[in-house]
Design the sequence.
DNA sequence: TCTGGGGTCCTAGGACCC
DNA sequence: TCTGGGGTCCTAGGACCC
């Protein structure tokens, strides 16, 4: 039986999320901007129609924005994450857990193979679409094909051509139509073919999706890579990329930011490093991992060609994989001192945790409340419940955020008893 | 004059994705 | 003047070890 993958994604995701909460934005040209309001990371249809590309620096757009009354919003990732969860869970009502892959914040692959006999897939997809629209007011598109790569392509067409009404099923398309569409679509629309590869392919005479689909996967594998040959096979309906229903364990955690203004001294970089380590550690703990290698990097602004450029990173391997905020902060600052050079204007810095391993320890993210006494109460309650579960030897106090935004407690079976008396809890900032 | 080979770790960089 | 952040995979060269 022919496989049937569906790719469902939210149109103009961040803009649509904003519109769901502020309907006055509907019908108006809207963009959502990245950190520091630097780049455009989402565009409404009206803005796309003006020819604004993804990732355009906002300052290049000021004039156009004024002319057309473009509304620019700073991004609100909490909101988008929340909407994403709801979106995914609605999709989950239409398939089993093993038939859904959450691919990104706004995209999910569904394996609809088993539903072909029960339903007309196009109307099934339309039901999904209607429910998402009704329940959370997000517009979505659905592409269906016999491989993930084809479903991506179908999804692209579903958006590009209004006659599809947001649902395009390649499996129902006759071959002549499919080929005609492939001939009219540029190769860079294919999943896995980016800017650079498109250039190289063009030099080889491969311009359209059809050209690529007709090329010889073996020869192309020699010239490019195994990834390329898989893409070609997938375009021909040979399934090489399976649905991934269990989210693979992360291999690295990155925490980095660009600075609003250029930094020339080490102090603000130190501050930033401590912050990066804190956010990365809290992700690490959420994943239940510890980290064996930490990389610290700093860089100048590559767009300022008038300035001398500097990029430097350094890695540190911990003797024992860890999630200890204090130790990691110290190492990060020391690493920074190692690579910092005066005379440069720094634009960006960050930390990368790699060689992550699962840990047996339990971490609780406990507090984000203002009242200190209440915090103390809740900390004690939480500690007692941990002691009940693991015994008193299991408790080790983790780090405490200096600003008091989050309290974290690391309860680790292997660690010695750090805690002999509840009254000794370090509750002072 | 003639300058091993294999393995690992680290750094750097290039490509792609969202 | 102003150019995001978080991921994956792959390759290659130098340092260092045996």
Sequence:
């Amino acid at each position: 039986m022919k496989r049937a993958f569906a790719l469902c994604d939210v149109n103009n995701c961040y803009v649509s999320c904003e519109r769901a909460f502020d309907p006055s934005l509907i019908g108006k040209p809207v963009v959502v901007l990245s950190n520091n309001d630097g780049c455009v990371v989402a565009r409404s249809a009206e803005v796309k129609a003006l020819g604004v590309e993804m990732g355009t620096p906002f300052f290049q757009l000021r004039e156009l924005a004024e002319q057309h009354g473009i509304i620019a919003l700073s991004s609100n990732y909490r909101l988008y994450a929340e909407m994403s969860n709801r979106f995914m869970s609605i999709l989950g009502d239409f398939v089993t857990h093993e038939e859904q892959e959450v691919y990104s914040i706004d995209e999910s692959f569904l394996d609809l193979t088993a539903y072909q006999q029960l339903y007309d897939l196009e109307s099934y997809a339309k039901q999904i679409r209607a429910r998402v629209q009704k329940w959370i007011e997000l517009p979505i598109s659905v592409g269906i094909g016999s491989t993930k790569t084809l479903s991506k392509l179908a999804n692209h067409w579903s958006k590009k051509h209004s006659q599809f009404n947001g649902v395009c099923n390649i499996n129902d398309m006759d071959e002549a139509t499919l080929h005609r569409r492939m001939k009219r679509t540029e190769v860079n629309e294919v999943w896995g073919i980016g800017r650079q590869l498109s250039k190289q392919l063009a030099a080889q005479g491969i311009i359209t999706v059809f050209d690529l689909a007709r090329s010889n996967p073996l020869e192309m594998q020699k010239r490019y890579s195994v990834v390329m040959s898989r893409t070609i096979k997938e375009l021909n309906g040979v399934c090489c990329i399976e649905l991934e229903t269990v989210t693979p364990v992360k291999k690295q955690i990155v925490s980095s930011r660009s600075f609003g203004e250029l930094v020339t001294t080490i102090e603000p970089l130190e501050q930033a490093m401590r912050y990066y380590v804190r956010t990365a550690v809290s992700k690490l703990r959420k994943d239940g991992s510890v980290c064996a290698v930490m990389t610290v990097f700093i860089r100048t602004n590559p767009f300022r060609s008038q300035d001398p450029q500097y990029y430097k990173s350094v890695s540190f391997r911990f003797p024992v994989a860890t999630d200890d905020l204090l130790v990691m902060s110290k190492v990060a600052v020391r690493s920074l001192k190692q690579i910092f050079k005066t005379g440069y204007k720094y634009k960006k810095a960050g930390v990368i945790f790699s060689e992550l391993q699962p840990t047996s320890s339990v971490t609780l993210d406990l507090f984000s409340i203002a009242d200190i006494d209440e915090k103390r109460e809740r900390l004690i309650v939480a500690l007692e419940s941990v002691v009940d579960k693991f015994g008193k030897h299991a408790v080790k106090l983790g780090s405490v955020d200096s600003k008091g935004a989050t309290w974290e407690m690391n309860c680790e079976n292997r660690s010695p008893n750090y805690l002999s008396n509840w009254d000794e809890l370090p509750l002072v900032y």
